[in-house]
Amino acid sequence: MILSVFLFLAGVFLLLGGASWFVSGASSLSHRLGIPDIVTGLTVVAIGTSSPELAVNIAAAIKGNASMAIGNIVGSNILNILLILGLTALIRPMRVERASQRAEIPLVVLSGFVVLAMGSDPLFDGATHAVITRSEGLVLLAFFLIFIAYIIYIARSKNEEFPATTSRNLWLDLFKFFIGLGGLILGSRFLVDGAIEIAHFFGISDTVIGLTIVAIGTSAPELATSAVAAWKGNSDIAVGNVIGSNIFNVFLILGLTAVIQPLPADPALLRDFWVNIGVSMLLLISTFTFKRMMIDRIEGGLFILFYLVYIAILLF
């Protein structure tokens, strides 16, 4: 048991450190290759913030823990909205951009319905069990490409650029890139192995572990980024980080995982699919309250309360 906890914590540490170094090295290398800032920001930076989820999901899928892979995505998305946005709103009320309110948050809601449809086959076509197939994974990836095209269009229309840091030392860039990648791979393996053993020790299902412990561990970069952004008064980053991560998690990470290995969906996840949709709609509704296009401290506190209730239901 002690070894399992150590493996889990070591996995979280390696994932976070690996993600940081991977982003730093990849960003500098992409600039050396003449890749525009906007492409770097939308790909390298996005992959970096969600790379723990990506690494853990691929590792879980390869090991045959589909429930943990799907649970990690659904659990991370629920956590991102209720806990991370809740905490950041408590730090500082956050303004939501009109584009996010009208397009990006509805896309988060849509992603929830897509996961529900793909992970609940018996409800819709009478199948005996639900599987997110490779073809459905390709559909998710197609949604992701549409999202990227939309973001590029919006950014170009505003003439925005994404800042990036370029190191003068090529070997340092390569070192950070490969060491960071290694940290992601090794960390994901440690985290999944540790989480599985902890689950078995306490008699907890892989699904619940994926929805809770693994989701919290892999969402640490989003939590740190949004909290710091809120503290500095940059609500665009705080809110955009969560919205982008949720879209990225479903359309790219879940899609890529399903393409690598079809994912049987645990029937117990049906409740969590609906919770994911519910909290996404809650986020959308919260931007239309009396303080229009704002998530205030009261709403942030309610978000956190809802998350604690959700976790209590899962565990007890």
Summed up:
The chain is mainly α and 316 residues long. The protein has one domain (2-315): A middle domain of Talin 1 (Up-down Bundle).
Low-confidence region ranges: none
Assess the beta-strand content as a share of residues: under 5%
CATH class: Mainly Alpha
Count the E strands. Answer: 4
Helix share, percent: over 70%
Overall shape: it is globular
CATH superfamily, by name, is NCX, central ion-binding region
CATH architecture: Up-down Bundle
The chain-level structural class is: mainly alpha
Report Rg. Answer: 19 Å
Question: Helical element count?
Answer: 12
Instruction: Strand order, main sheet: write it out.
Output: 1-4
CATH fold-level topology = A middle domain of Talin 1
Account of the 3D structure:
The chain has 316 residues and is mainly α. It has one domain: NCX, central ion-binding region (A middle domain of Talin 1, Up-down Bundle), CATH 1.20.1420.30. It contains twelve helices and four strands. The chain has helices at residues 2-32, 37-62, 66-91, 98-119, 121-125, 134-157, 170-202, 206-218, 220-231, 235-260, 269-286, 297-315, and strands spanning 94-95, 130-132, 263-265, 294-295. It has a two-stranded antiparallel ribbon with strand order 1-4. Strands 2-3 form a two-stranded antiparallel ribbon. It starts with a helix and ends with a helix. 47% of the residues are buried.
